[in-house]
Amino acid sequence: MQLKDLFPKIDKPVSAYSVALFRIGFGALMFLDVIYYFNVGLIEKGILGPKVLFPYDFLEWVKPIQSAGVLKLFLGLMGVGALMMSLGLWSRIGAALFFVFNSYLFTLDKSLYNNHIYFFSLVAFLLIWIDADKTLSLKNKIKGISPTPEIPAWQLWILQFQLIVVYFYGGIAKINMDWLSRFEPMRAALQSITPRNALVEFLNEEFMVAFFTYSGLIFDLVIGFMLLYKPTRWIALGCVVFFNITNSWIFDDIGVFPFTMLAATVLFFDTKGLFEKTGKRGRKEKSSKPESFTTPSWLKTGLTIYVCFQLLFPFRHWLLPNDVDWTSVAQRFSWRMKIQFRDIKKMEWKVKNSDTGEEFPVDLAVFTHDMQRRYMGDDARYAYRFAQYLVEFSKENGIANPEVYADIEVSFNGRPVQKFIRPDVDLSKVNYSPFKKIEWIMPLKED
Fold it and tell me: 6 vs 79, 102, 290, 309, CA distance in Å?
């Protein structure tokens, strides 16, 4: 069987308007996101501010350019790319600009990670290969080209697929006892809403916490299929609006993500009727539609690899020895969204001179920013990386044989406070591999 036999319909023509509308909305929202990054000082505070960065496993080779000007230029090029996508001004090039620099900046330090940033990079990557500017584009106006109202079906389907994966895998991650029986971390999220008022108090009633918990799970698992199925599509749209507006209100760290998901629902609706011209007799004029497009075999192979990666990679924690929720190993790039909450009760680090026995407390604020310190209570690898840095720093400052200890106490999803890192283990001597059990982390205690 040849590869083309596995794709009998991906070359059939479909309307280009839904993809074009999504391109316009996505690009505009990404431009707003870039403005937000400039306003919060992403470069100065998030990348160049801390003395130590925390790389991803196997991406330790990605290093920041030690120039605020150059990094701001990269951020600016992200904004240019976003505008090019939105305006349809050579949107493939714009998507490539956004993808490259968004991916680079946010792989410098995993403290900057958020699922929606990963999603934005994936969408931009897909738009590099899609004829998203065939219609409703400034490029056509400038070149005097008539818009092309059809594109190959795969270009619409791959975007729909990516959206469904985000929702569905987010639902799968919620199928755990903390979510189903403890109603965590939804309970903690509702309790954190400010300012406190009568509505917020009502939402914190037990039955409302249960409603949000289970409705969120069911929504994630079924919404993509409701959008695909025409009879339920408009009901699904109402659910999408309610879900994403509510998320935008409850969670303060997801930025334009809910609005991007709202914009993406246009991918499931037939919008060509909004743009077709009407002839003199009141009938819609038919566009010349090709019987079929021809997608190169290499691109079909790439699509197959991409789809398989998106389907399989989020489950890699099944093959690894560490508890994904407690250690955070394999937590990222898996759509495991909003399924845990940690209240850090204690965070103390010290360096001990093994030659003299003298101990030195570590002021974390000198070396790290707020997000990095918060993730030290989430991800065991932060302790390993920070210990490595402290060893180098100590040797540079006259301590030839330093030992590093961390005393971190957290409450995980409402459980009693417990130690996260073994406080009696010298972290300067430990090793880490995602494929080996982390012995210097305390086991998670149940109630």
Answer: 38, 33, 21, 18
Q: Which residues pair with 45 in a beta bridge?
A: none
pLDDT at 238: 96
Please give the order of strands across the beta sheet that includes 402-412: 359-362, 342-353, 402-412, 418-419
* Residue 22 CA to its chain's centroid (Å): 18
Q: Which of 123-132, 169-178, 183-192, 193-202 has the lowest mean pLDDT?
A: 193-202
Average pLDDT value over all residues in the chain: 91
What CA–CA distances, in Å, run from 431 to 17, 152, 304, 345?
53, 50, 36, 26
- Cα four-point dihedral sign 320, 324, 326, 327: positive
Q: Is the peptide bond before 321 cis (omega within 30 degrees of 0)?
A: no
What burial class does residue 227 get, using C-beta atoms within 10 Å of its C-beta: 0-12 exposed, 13-18 middle, 19+ buried? buried
Residue type for position 283: R
Is the omega angle on the peptide bond into residue 443 within 30 degrees of 0, that is, cis? no
In the predicted model, is pLDDT for residue 405 greater than 50?
Answer: yes
State if pTM tops 0.90.
yes
**CB-based contact 425:440 (threshold 8 Å):** yes
91-129 pLDDT tens trace: 999 999 999 999 999 999 999 999 999 999 999 999 999
117 alpha carbon, distance to own chain's centre: 4
